[in-house]
Write a structure and sequence with these properties.
single chain, 232 residues, alpha/beta, TIM Barrel, 8-stranded parallel sheet, 9 helices, 41% helix, binds pyridoxal-5'-phosphate
Length: 232
Amino acid sequence: MADITANLAEIRGRLEEATKRSGRDLADVELMVVSKTWPVSVIEEAVEAGQVLFGENKVQDAGEKISQMSPELRWHFIGHLQRNKVRKVLPLVEAVHSIDSVKLARYCDTIAKELGLSPAVYLEVNLGGEEKKHGFTKGELESALTELRELQNIRIAGLMCIPPIEEDAGKARGWFVALRELRDELERQTGVVLPGLSMGMSHDYEVAIEEGATIVRVGSAVFGKRIKPATD
Ligand SMILES: *Cc1c(COP(=O)(O)O)cnc(C)c1O
């Protein structure tokens, strides 16, 4: 059984060190604890250790867990989002990290309006151009943003990536730099402000922070290895 309290303390310490190394403000980086596959009883330990923001990747699981836990907690959705789940997920979460098409964004906007919500959304970028992964390709983003900027009921928070797996966190750095540079370029091209960079997981969150992550998504470093498959 993982010592969740100790793990969280260590991660928070490393996160702070990474902000110091890179001359960033601690307040500019959020730690999202990815609680997918873990039951409420386990997640409660992280809550007791002071964690408030959690990430889930399946709508059904998220709904069940959120209904059983304190309303003070904050939740983000990080899994592949199907159109038929949008209506269910938007009332549960404050942000969706996995918007991967203009069509999905438009549909979220429509449903958000109907429900009187204004969720934050991150555009997921398939940086490595991997066939099995979701997300916009780099080339699609400029025109996507000029369309999405018109939508009134979703707030474009920034970009998100799940880069190809690198054994060595140093190699992940290149992907994080690429996402940051892409963000800078898109801001210049479109004038749309993209403040958020959702990047960095258990094995590379420190490097991601050094390269500008504003929110890191950390699961197994908190809870230990997942037993159930983690894919969506
Ligand atoms: C599972 C998952 C994470 C967390 O991964 P760990 O390696 O366990 O930290 C982060 N982001 C997304 C999108 C995930 O699906």
